[in-house]
Amino acid sequence: MDATAKPLRIPPEMRTYAEQHGIFDLIQAMMKRLLMEKPEDPIEYLIDLLKNNSIEVPRIFVLGPPASGKRTVVKQLCKHLGATRISTESLLREESDLVKEALEYKANQQEIPSMLWINLVQQRLSKKDCIKRGWVFEGFPKTREQAFRLQAAGIAPEHVVLLDAPDTVLIERNLGKRIDPVTGDVYHTSFDWPSSEHVEKRLVEADGIWESETVASLLEYQRNLKGLESTYSTVSRVINADQPSIDVFSQVLTFVLSRHRSVAPHTPRILLHGPPGSGKSLQAALIAQKYNIVNICCGQVLKAVAADETSQGELIKPGLETGQQVPDSTVLKILTERLSRLDCTTRGWVLHGCPRNLEQAEKLNSAGFTPNRVFFLDMPDEVAVERVTFRMTDPVTGQRYHSLYKAAPSQQIQDRLQVNPRDSAESLQRRLDLYRTNLPELQELYSDAIYVNADQDPHAIFEFLESHIVNRLPKPLSHRWTPSPSD
């Protein structure tokens, strides 16, 4: 290759298309699956994955001490995600030579070797339902050795849930545990007794529920916990199981729907939308400064063009000086020209002040400037009135003050402060009414938008925005697997 030749530059349109359709992440995920599973025919294997839509299926371990609620959590996850439920008990109900070998160990009251467990797991996960729908594994691996053997076999979970609760709570739970031998459902004498008398009559005591047995199981779990935590440190999260089951499941579901940090190329295209006084300008400035992206304020862009001695500047200057609205076509032409510059296409941008309505948003999208993060900064109108109508500007320094939150430091400065006519109560109310009128259509267009309460400390808002900028968006539940007659 000629080292003096100009390097190939990826067109912005290609990068946008790749991000919108997850091309970089798709390639990364396929390469990961290839390296883990090492199929004999890689091409045929990848084609099969793509045909079955099996690239991003759930692969989850749910671990925890006795009575921490693993079975309940796993059943709920499988119901919501359409994944295959697996446990050590279900593995031994399969029909194969490996299962027969494992049952012989059990019949002789011998511990089933770790390598045999790994072979059983490999055999089960290679079946069509696990490949196509994904899986949620309950209570396995139990030791660091088993975790390492799973990794060596190419079995790596995307998420590991570690349930945790105080020993006293777990002992109390275990003593009251009862099992329905027909369905496998778990009930409790104090917390969750069945409403059906039919079910009640067939309940049996679970194995290993007495205090001495529970304490022994807890000690065994605690001895192995550190090893499991270190093995899965990058993909695990500890969830407090000593709370209502609905709260436990909500936190678990949020975690397993989250996506790990991607190494795919990413150009931030951020849109901040909110009513006057919601802090869009401040948050945009903080984001742009920290991540070295371009801060695009629509109003400032128009003022910069008006200041230039060009035909376009002369065209919009009278409207800006009199407070009249610049035509949408002119605004979008100027804005798209700015967003097309090299700094925006290479570093990314954070936009605020536009689009104000559905028509502007659709035209911006059709021009190829689709944001990949949209935030709605929301707050009550009365807060906007308090923030905006009491603010004033020092014409000498350009510093902004507020009668309630940031008073002028001296009487001299106070005497020369000026109020922007746009900040009057009448003008603000018109702007708020217009914002509320256009809001529903914009919310419908940006259905994946993230909402943030703007009536709080600016630094708290920035931390919230930042967490959703640097992390990938969670997997939507609407994309979960649904069974078909052929499955």
3D architecture notes:
A hairpin with a 6-residue loop joins strand 5 and strand 6 (186-188). 24% of the residues are buried. Helix 7 crosses helix 9 (144-152). The two termini are 50 Å apart. The chain contains 23 helices and 15 strands. The radius of gyration is 30 Å and the shape is elongated. It has 487 residues and is of the alpha/beta class. The strands form four sheets. The protein has a five-stranded parallel sheet. It has a five-stranded parallel sheet with strand order 10-11-9-12-15.
Gist?
The protein has 487 residues and is of the alpha/beta class.
What keywords describe this structure?
23 helices, 487 residues, five-stranded parallel sheet, disordered C terminus, elongated, 15 strands, alpha/beta, disordered N terminus
- What kind of sheet is the major sheet? 5 strands, parallel
Q: Provide the helix percentage.
A: 40-55%
User: How many individual helices?
Assistant: 23
Shape: elongated
Radius of gyration from CA coordinates? 30 Å
Distance between the termini: 50 Å
Average pLDDT: 84
Structural class: alpha/beta
**Biggest sheet, spatial arrangement of strands:** 2-3-1-4-8
Low-confidence stretches: 1-9, 478-487
Task: Report the portion of residues in β strands.
Answer: 5-15%
Q: Can you count the beta strands?
A: 15
